Amino acid sequence: MKKTLALGLLALACIAPAQASAVQLNIAHRGASDARPEHTFAAYDHALTLGADYIEQDLQITSDGVLVVMHDETLTRTVRGPAENCTGRVDSKTLAQLKTCSAGDWGKFAGGAYVSEKIPTMEEVFQRYGKTVNYYIETKQPEPGENMEAKLLALLDKYDLRESAVTDWQVLIQSFDANSLKTIHAMDPRLPLVFLGSLNPTSIQAVREYGVGIGPSFGGVTKANVDLAHAACLNVHPYTVNTTADIQRMLELGVDGMFTNFADRLETLLGAKAAPGLTGASIAAAETRRCRGEQKDVPAQVGGSVPATLSLTMGAPASFEPFIPGVERVYTAGTTAKVISTAGDASLTVSEPGHLTNGAFTLASPLGVTIAPNAWSGPVSNADAAITFTQPIGRTEPLRTGTYAKTLTFTLSTTNP
């Protein structure tokens, strides 16, 4: 049965090579691990500023059962501090011991700006970034009695990341240990898993049963095997691709993403094709579901019409304070208008103001009216227009007892309904 499946996949790839990936993911290998000490918050923060779609975590487990983020089984290469706490195997130390060590005082970073960086726990990583980033987590050398896989899934649940891992690939879980991935698959077959190993017909056939992708060493990646993986609806994420020439070659082979210590180089080569924010992971997840027949997108139109509308609502009538005979002054009063227009433009005008009258008596100076704003270049809804009235009164102007008034007509119109 397995032999037949492998031949069928190979035939499919030869007849109809898979199309280029909808998105190619920028996976920050141990964070921005060339510019910052690997697997530190400094490395992760910097990777995100460089455009990484994912930040990677390698898991080890302490002697008191805490998941910590570190690549090596031993502390020798990347940790400095008291020998009794900061040398030897990670699984021989408690978390309290490891927290006395520096994770940023080694190699080219020794004595530099990152001496205070500590070994983070996986929980601390989730606490720091929550749902604002995508995680690519590797279970490393898991021992059956350590329950690394169960501990990881418990943390995903605690920080509400399991469902987003399933639907949007906010968390991808990888391992060189197929049994570790199969253990997770048995716990929750929905979770996206990536096998780290060779890319060939045999591995493609095996991984298709439980995973969504393969992470091979980039040197052995070929177009034929990338197409074969795509025909099996598997993603290809090679590691660790650092030179500009190698990054470009992987992109041209059509891989779905790659691990790199130089997220900025990959982001530059991706250019406008780089996925914004967290969207790259969800695009990749949806493409894989479509390939596997687990998702079908059917367009369904929905819409609504807008009736032609020009609406003008005037505020309270404007009223000047009492005119004082014998005092030269310009009186002001105001009101507002609310404009609703669905037209391409609109303007608000007023009829000739003329003069205020009180029976047979008329004020000498005409009424002044200003409207601001009085024109709109597109649709508006409940836009306010301030209407200001001015009325000059002369020192020798005779005023009759009573009320001076006039009714004006305001007009809202358009030239582009």
CATH superfamily of the largest domain: Phosphatidylinositol (PI) phosphodiesterase
Per CATH, the class of the largest domain reads Alpha Beta
Overall domain count: 2
CATH architecture of the largest domain: Alpha-Beta Barrel
Structural class: alpha/beta
Question: What's the main sheet like?
Answer: 9 strands, mixed
**DSSP strand count:** 18
Oligomer: single chain
Enumerate how many helices there are, as a single number: 13
**Mean pLDDT, as a whole number?**
94
CATH topology of the largest domain: TIM Barrel
Residue share in helix: 25-40%
Global outline: elongated
Q: Calculate Rg over CA atoms.
A: 35 Å
Strand content: 15-25%
Low-confidence stretches: 1-19
Distance between termini?
A: 69 Å
Write a concise synopsis of the structure shown:
InterPro entries: GP_PDE_dom, PLC-like_Pdiesterase_TIM-brl. The protein has 417 residues and is of the alpha/beta class.
